[in-house]
Design goal:
The chain has eleven helices and 21 strands. By secondary structure, the chain is α/β, with parallel strands linked by helices. Helix 5 crosses helix 6 and helix 10 crosses helix 11. The relative contact order is 0.10. The chain binds zinc ion.
């Protein structure tokens, strides 16, 4: 996507500021002459920023303004040990609320809505982001936080909440409880804003039907404000992002090369206005693509597709990038195939071979199904696999998100 003049100017201004004072980016960009950055192409030669860089700056190394300007910190979950701390100025907090307000508006939510917020409050950016955006919109917030399903449903009924903000798994849990308790006619929800993660169409349909809501995927990450930097509109699944606050690139996760619009790769974000902890070319590890062309809704904001997965899940075989979500989607459309599968990639006799194990329903015509899966894989993903059908329950299960792709080549 072509960088706008206004984006280029903001980036230049930010680079000048960051290289002229002692901070994280002064070191990171050492030896780079900002005056020599004259075009998008020059910008694309700047080094990426990785989550590991941010971790090394723990605790407050990312702070790019004097401390008296910082009003708050947030932290991303430290699943690998050291968390990332992001400092926010008052302006950052306001900018985030403004973006979030736009998200609600994009979803058709108004100041007459009652918004029940179930994501957690605290160090995490979720709950408070939903809250600030809703208050800026002028809606009535029901700030629940997570858990306590009894109270959650009681408030939902008594306060006549019209909007649910939740993770997909919690939305599903509430939907199932509502059905189980037979209280659907006492629920007034008409929209749900779901923190964007990869989730299947089947789950989407169940939540939409059982809660009786229109669903909206909201995207964001703590390193870049938090949720609220993109959301889908009523017309379609792709998400509009706020290109006056962030500059977004899609790069090949392996080579780092910027990809043309429409091609799937890793989302890389540069903040345009962030003060407390600006980011230049931050690798999100989220996979998506820029959706070319204009949206039928008329919004001028550009779009990225629903997240396709994480770069950690991707495997490249014979020049084809393969994501678990593609395999899941393909299998979901085939009668007799279950959703359980496993992929093995091996290097045999000088060639890469992809073997797909799929659990199948008892009594199917195995030969016919094998051919069908092979054909569909080739047609939809672009490569012919070796297909092995196994009985239900044969593939390993785990409580956690199970690893389904095993790359044995290296
Ligand atoms: Zn749209």
């Amino acid at each position: 996507m072509k960088m706008k003049e206004s984006q280029f100017l903001l980036i230049k201004e930010q680079l000048k500021k960051l290289t002229s004072q002692e901070c994280f980016y002064q070191k990171k960009l050492e030896g780079i002459d900002v005056d020599q950055i004259k075009s998008q192409e020059d910008f694309e030669k700047l080094p990426f920023t990785w989550k590991g860089d941010l971790r090394e700056a723990y605790p407050l190394g990312l702070m790019a303004v004097p401390e008296e300007e910082i009003v708050r910190i947030h932290s991303s979950s430290g699943t690998t040990g050291i968390p990332v701390i992001i400092p926010y100025t008052r302006q950052d907090v306001e900018d985030w609320a403004e973006m979030f307000k736009r998200c609600y508006e994009m979803a058709g939510i108004t100041n007459m809505d009652r918004i029940q917020i179930t994501p957690g409050y605290g160090l995490w950016t979720a709950g408070i982001g939903f809250q600030n955006g809703a208050e800026r919109l002028g809606a009535m917030v029901v700030p629940m936080g997570p858990g306590n399903t009894d109270k959650q449903l009681r408030m939902m009924m008594d306060m006549k909440s019209t909007v649910l903000c939740a993770t997909s798994s919690y939305a599903l849990l509430l939907a199932e409880e509502i059905e189980k308790r037979g209280i659907k006619d006492r629920i007034h929800l008409n929209r749900a804003v779901i923190g964007s993660e990869r989730w299947g169409d089947k789950m989407r349909k169940r939540i939409a039907n059982e809660l009786g809501v229109k669903l909206f995927d909201i995207y964001g990450l703590t390193e870049v404000y938090g949720p609220g930097i993109a959301i889908n509109c009523e017309k379609q699944g792709a998400m509009h992002y706020w290109d006056d606050y962030i500059y977004l690139e899609i790069v090949d996760p392996k080579t780092g090369e910027v990809l043309p619009d429409g091609e799937v790769g890793e989302i890389v974000i540069t903040t345009l206005r962030k003060q407390g902890a600006p980011l230049i070319r931050y690798r999100t590890h989220d996979l998506s693509r820029i959706v070319p062309g204009d949206c039928p809704c008329g919004s001028p904001y550009p779009r990225i597709d629903t997240l396709i997965g994480r770069t950690d899940d991707m495997v490249k075989v014979k020049g084809v990038n393969i994501f678990p979500s593609q395999i899941e989607e393909m299998l979901a459309a085939i009668d007799g195939a279950s959703s359980e599968y496993q992929v093995m990639v091996d290097h045999l006799l000088g060639k890469d071979v992809l073997t797909l194990f799929v659990e199948v329903q008892p009594g199917v015509n195995k030969y016919g199904l094998e051919i069908e899966i092979q054909d569909q894989f080739k047609y939809k993903i672009g490569l012919t696999p070796v297909v092995k059908l196994v009985e239900i329950g044969e593939l390993p299960r785990s409580e956690k998100k199970s690893t389904r792709v095993f790359d044995n080549r290296y």
